[in-house]
Amino acid sequence: MRLKLKQKGLTRHDERCPNCDGYVKFWTDEKGVFVKSSSLDIGRAGELVHRECGAVLSY
After folding, report:
1. How many structural domains are present in the chain?
2. Disulfide-capable partner of 37 in 1, 16, 26, 59 (CB 3.0 to 4.6 Å)?
């Protein structure tokens, strides 16, 4: 799966959540636009929400 995403020109990011110090893993495209994540959800207003602690994040 990771190889297929890299072949499409996507970049993987591993960051630390400033709220709970857990890991936040996500993919962005060439322009830096959020594409996919296993640890983030998209909230009602379009914000990125960490699944573990519910913190609203901006990357």
Report:
1. 1
2. 26
